[in-house]
Design brief:
Protein name (chains A, B, C): N-acetylornithine carbamoyltransferase
Oligomer: homotrimer
EC number (chains A, B, C): 2.1.3.9
Number of domains of chain A: 2
Low-confidence stretches of chain A: none
Number of helices of chain A: 13
Largest sheet of chain A: 5 strands, parallel
Helix content of chain A: 40-55%
Distance between the termini of chain A: 10 Å
Structural class of chain A: alpha/beta
Family (chains A, B, C): Belongs to the aspartate/ornithine carbamoyltransferase superfamily. AOTCase family.
CATH superfamily of the largest domain in chain A: Aspartate/ornithine carbamoyltransferase
Largest interface: B-C, 33 and 31 residues
Pathway (chains A, B, C): Amino-acid biosynthesis; L-arginine biosynthesis
Mean pLDDT of chain A: 96
Strand content of chain A: 5-15%
Pfam families (chains A, B, C): OTCace, OTCace_N
Number of strands of chain A: 11
CATH architecture of the largest domain in chain A: 3-Layer(aba) Sandwich
CATH topology of the largest domain in chain A: Rossmann fold
Chain lengths: ~350, ~350, ~350
């Protein structure tokens, strides 16, 4: 039995299998690969794309998705071991995971950080607890990484460049401003998968405070080395955009200020000019732009960029449906692939 | 590609097609007309009948409905163009509509007025934005009109009078009291469709403050003229009920006080006697009574009226299931009909 | 047409039919017994197991479950007759039940007590109103009893002891501490079904304040007499556990303090030692332990008990899926059974 917690746990061949399978599902929507099967979608945080695409993906392959929102329309869950549960939590992850495993064939989990203590959040406790106690495959629907988004993103790039081999492409992950301090999940994921695919990857951010967690910086370095690509950090907007084939934007809060966002806010406010606009895109080598969505227009990217043919964010979002069907099909029907 | 935003956009033949199709679905619940298809149900406001009937209607024809509540279990959406999204909204309608269109075959929207500024609400921005940016058919599940309710209502009358031709029937839309100032959607819709069907329509309301928006008053006049029926406004309860074949009740807030309901409340309180009761129904020509539901008993209509054989509100509610299946089937399989 | 409101309304043969059918569904998950059918799941209170198991059970037999949360994503409902609905409720149970009956083939209801006045709550008004006004079978998903849990519990015992005949087993329902004053539903149900099955049943609770409602105490006495078992009340932990084959734990608030829980709390706090632990389980005759879940670990039962092979709570939870499929199948396809 395999989980789909992070792409880094999977081989490049395994990931390319998922991407190829996703292309097949994009060409042929309906099938019976998951006939009579079921998946529980646990949302500790809200969702539109993720929920819709998983729910429909299951349906289109003959399965049924049950949507649960613990703490809202289900009981709040305890994740610590050995604790006397005299607080707000009514049920322990051990029972939740075992009982759900007795009902469904897969469990998918969205659990954002609590945004209080990064040392705590970086342990990804909720996801890992499900993976530990569930007796069925567990899928990451975004925690501190977002591997389904990674696959959708890479599939869009493969489609765009008409090749499964993305080596040699110049890829820029650019930080952008957002009024709130956001999760680093998609940024961690973008670094991870872009380097994994062997691209020449630049992490563009305002200053060293916006570097990502050492785990993901380390993966990026390891991946670049293994795949024959490169990984660079830059704070220079012009130099980063110059000649880029891919610009991927994401906003996140600076980790040294984690949970103390009031202190980070004044710094963040100084970098609104990181917005992706036409002038910056003009520096690229006819590059494409994408974003995981939701995106605040004219804050992270201008209307002109969003409405340009270079923007493939909607295509990437659509691909969520197809890659997730590939993940579900593979976990159930080809557990030998990883 | 067609939308189903308002009955006024459709021909009478198109509407009669939908009604006839609905009768067929009422006789034969299950089919595969929408096999493998999907519809997103976006609820900006709560629902029971609408959600249940759309969800089941999709299921009974082989499709799947995804229920989304933006702002609750999905991201809040921006509808203004060109704005810098630095407020509460996290995602623009352009992306929402395009991404949903890439997942589903139809999008249905419930979006009540904001009840602040009628000049703003009467533009029906949410629905129209979906219709503009979606690349799949959009269905109105109640905004400032409620066309699905119109079809269910007319189907119940056609069944009751055993004829598809309702011309010559005396139809009274009566305002009733409600402790809150409610949406005019169903009132607008009742006027629109009753005149469209060529009935002799009276709008009975306490005074001129309770007239409906000029758009719908104008449609009613135009429709009556075109169909050979009539349209009258009255503030006289006895005269309005006299000889009626149909009494349809609805409460709404007086538009001149829109968003300033505290000032309207004392006036509204004076008209509690507009309640539909047995004495009033006795004035009709053995008329039927209906209401879109939910209905506050003994406020809008008495128990005696609600529990009488003349009340066809439950039948009308049931018809929601059948007419909505007709709408979905027609939009997908007969896009030439309108 | 039959409802499934309480096991006490059903014959022992009828219940054994449901249990046998559940075993069949456990062996063969998929079927078309409910093809094209539908069930409305009305949750006035949150749920995880119940919702998931009903939703999946419907799906696995070809049906569709619509999940509604009145007052959250549907209108608040009035249950009193003859009232002028000028308060918060927007719709009367009569219309809700009739309209839902026109859409779906079954209605399932979860409605916990309001915890203000037990004399009011013990009338089970919400469930009984649905049963009265619905024209389709109604299923109790937990109100002041929890008959689906009863079946799942008994099926787990039948599996554990490899016999459908549980007579002669010593069964202890033990009260346990919980920081909140909980519903007596599962305790009422455990007494009811354990005595019905002819076991030798002990109700172990701290003192006479924790006795259950006279209706369920009376059923337990009647059932024990009819089935040739026994029913005893005890406040002696050691004596109750001694030689037990089954320990079933549940916490509840003392009924004399109903709605006045602040006054009950100090008393309840004195009985934390009712926790199910290894020392107590060692007194049993190799007995099994179960609980309806959710369970607060190390408050109601220790980790050691929960993680021991004697704990069959997860098995009981899984059985919810199977017994509920048996209930739905029987209500629709074998209405002669009761």
């Amino acid at each position: 039995m395999q989980h789909f917690l992070n792409t880094q746990d999977w081989s490049v061949d395994g990931l390319q299998h998922l991407l190829a399978k996703a292309s097949e599902f994009k060409a042929n929507k309906l099938g019976d690969q998951l006939k009579g099967r079921s998946i529980a979608l646990l949302f500790f945080n809200p969702s539109m794309r993720t929920r819709t695409s998983f729910e429909l993906g299951a349906f289109q392959l003959g399965a049924h998705a049950v949507v649960l929102q613990p703490g809202k329309d289900a009981w709040p869950i305890e994740f610590e071991l050995g604790t006397a549960m005299d607080g707000d939590t009514e049920e322990h992850i051990i029972e939740v995971a075992k009982v759900l495993s007795s009902y469904v064939d897969m469990i998918a989990v969205r659990a954002f950080p609590k945004f209080i203590d990064w040392q705590d959040d970086r342990q990804d406790k909720v996801l890992n607890a499900f993976a530990r106690y569930a007796t069925v495959p567990v899928i990451n629907m975004e925690t501190i990484t977002h591997p389904c988004q990674e696959l959708a993103h890479i599939l869009a790039l493969q489609e765009q460049f008409a090749t499964r081999d993305l080596r040699g492409k110049k890829y820029v992950l650019t930080w952008t401003y957002h009024p709130k301090a956001l999760n680093t999940a998609v940024a961690n994921s973008a670094l991870t998968i872009a380097t994994r695919m062997g691209m020449d990857v630049t992490l563009l951010c305002p200053n060293a405070q916006y570097l990502l967690d050492e785990r993901y910086m380390g993966w990026a370095e390891d991946n670049a080395r293994a795949a024959g690509g490169s990984f660079t950090v830059s704070h220079d907007i012009e130099r980063s955009y110059a000649g880029a084939h891919v610009v991927y934007a994401k906003s996140w809060g600076a980790l040294p200020y984690f949970g103390n966002w009031g202190a980070e806010q004044p710094m963040r406010e100084q970098y609104k000019h990181f917005i992706v606009d036409e002038a910056k895109m003009a520096l690229t080598d006819g590059g494409v732009f994408s974003h995981c969505l939701p995106l605040r227009r004219n804050i992270k990217a201008t209307d002109a960029v969003m409405d340009s043919p270079a923007c493939i964010a909607v295509q990437e979002a659509e691909n969520r449906l197809h890659v997730q069907k590939a993940v579900m099909d593979t976990l159930i029907n080809h557990p030998e692939i990883r």
